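Person: Please work through this fold.
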Amino acid sequence: MKQVSEEVGAFYQHYPRLAAVVAAYHEGKPNAMVAGWHSPLSFNPPLFGVSLSPKRHTYQMILDSGEFSVNFLPSSKAGLIAALGGSKGSQMDKFSAFGIAREIPLKTNSPVLTDAYAVYECKLVDNRTYGDHQLLVGEVVAVHTLAEAFTADEMLDLKAVTPAFYLGKDKYIAKLKASVETMERERFGQPGSL
């Protein structure tokens, strides 16, 4: 039986969500945090948004530098993701403390994590308040991908990489048995196709 309430509760009904590591670099210092609320917003220009609390150290670094990166790590790095989410960049150098390896960014100074199977380098183009969070919109100016993690048509190959999913309340999916089935819209969009 479904329960109905006007109370949102813990607000985890829309999870699991792909965990992303949002990173910034300002005044010689890198920082990274975990974000569960993020989304592509436009193909042309390529825009990607992350929703961050303005209380986060990374948020201020992004405002100050005008750029950020969005790093997608495999589930095998769930421990690192949890460490980044459970520590404060204003109190420590997370990159040194957790031995995070970086690659050279192409168009920004934002950290590109070596362990990521995909990274977006973004230039900040908008910052708006929505409730208790800020929606930071970045134009994707460079994309880093691990070639063997993607199929020929640029889709994530779940046989090669299991993405890290966040369930809420410090819980991550570390293993996932995936099955991919192609569902053509033209075929299934017809009456009687189900």
User: Anything to note?
Assistant: The chain has a mean pLDDT of 90. The domain at 17-188 is CATH 2.30.110.10 (Pnp Oxidase; Chain A). The radius of gyration is 18 Å. The CA atoms of residues 31 and 94 lie 7 Å apart.
